[in-house]
Amino acid sequence: MKTLFAFLLISCLSSSIYAQKVERPLIIFDTDMGPDYDDVGAIAILHALEANGECEILATVASDAHPDIAPTIEVFNTYFGRKDIPIGIAPSSAPNFTAGNNWNEKLIDKFQPEIKNKTYPDAVDVYRKVLSEQPDQSVTIVSVGFISNLAALLDSEPDDYSDLNGLELVEKKVKKWVAMAGSFPEGKEFNVFKDAPASYSTFQNWPTPILFSGFEIGSKIMTGNKVAKEKNINKACPIQWAYEYNLKTYAKKEVKNRASWDQTAVLCAVRNPSDYFYVNGPGAFLIEENGSNNWDPDTDNQHTFLVHKYPYQVIADEIESLMLYKPSMK
């Protein structure tokens, strides 16, 4: 009897551990990683959460077509010990520019100059390959930039990876999309209007639930100073370099912190968003052809958006503690 009890107990524990493993969010991170630098904090948080066993990063794709964006992503993935993560580049129709202080090029030159002219696959090919390999309804897409890749994904045709078209593939494989996009209850936000045609078609046709972290969320959460000033971070840390350089040079004058738009989306894609914010909805994110948006609370399009719950510094402290994650150096 004791033997049977022990066997049943081990089986239950094994099943529980397996269930927890399966439930870890499987993340595709879609980022413009260049016009601003909150993306740097976002990718740091994502790697910190993966290292803590809270998610698995499947791919990291660039939504800005500037040639320095994909290598910048690779610098960060390499620093965190995940050089194996697939990286894709945006379609030629995507916005193509970076910051005025040229931080992307400077970062690549400092940390991995050998990859500056590296060739990367198209983001849509990365999406289709990765999605086709995952269980149904299992993937969380986190976008913290332009919607260019996702529009191209929805428009994609069957290929060697899947006999489904893009819309069908997303509907089958994606669990949810968490987007740093829009302003609530109305507005005109950069990530949405900068490639307005892509945003207009994608938000109208996306087949899975979408959680929005709007402009008004991250704009109140200021972070970066602790990362820039931390003395115990390895000197070869591109995260610290990016914040230290950008806080000094990105704006017309040096600033202490930067808004945390992209970090909030990553945090709420991996962890329960209700632990940090109120979640408003369901409703419908309504978009105009010029990229402006408003919120319809009376129509259920499986859309929800974040609303502040805690004092801003409470969330800032949580975000910055994750941004300070230091990978083990082997």
Layout: helices, strands, pairs:
Elements: H1 2-23, E1 26-31, H2 38-51, E2 56-62, H3 69-79, E3 87-88, H4 103-111, H5 123-132, E4 139-144, H6 148-155, H7 166-173, E5 174-179, E6 186-188, H8 190-193, H9 196-205, E7 210-212, H10 215-218, E8 222-223, H11 225-229, H12 238-249, E9 258-259, H13 261-270, E10 277-287, E11 292-296, E12 303-308, H14 312-323
Parallel strand pairs: 1-2, 1-4, 2-3, 4-5, 5-7, 7-12
Antiparallel strand pairs: 6-11, 8-9, 10-11, 10-12
Helix pairs in contact: 2-13, 2-14, 3-4, 5-6, 6-7, 6-9
Mean pLDDT: 93
Helix content: 40-55%
Structural class: alpha/beta
**Morphology call:** globular
Tell me the major beta sheet: 10 strands, mixed
Rg estimate, integer Å: 20 Å
Low-confidence stretches: 1-22
Termini distance?
A: 48 Å
> How many E-type strands?
12
- Supply the number of helical segments: 14
How large is the share of residues in beta strands?
15-25%
Order of neighbouring strands in the sheet with most strands: 3-2-1-4-5-7-12-10-11-6
Order of helices and strands: HEHEHEHHEHHEEHHEHEHHEHEEEH
Features:
42% helix, ten-stranded mixed sheet, 330 residues, 12 strands, alpha/beta, 14 helices, globular
Explain what you see.
The protein is an alpha/beta fold. It is 42% helix and 18% strand. The strands form two sheets. A ten-stranded mixed β-sheet has the order 3-2-1-4-5-7-12-10-11-6, sandwiched between helices. α3 links the parallel β2 and β3 (87-88). α3 (69-79) packs across α4 (103-111). The termini are far apart. Residues 1-22 have low confidence and may be disordered.
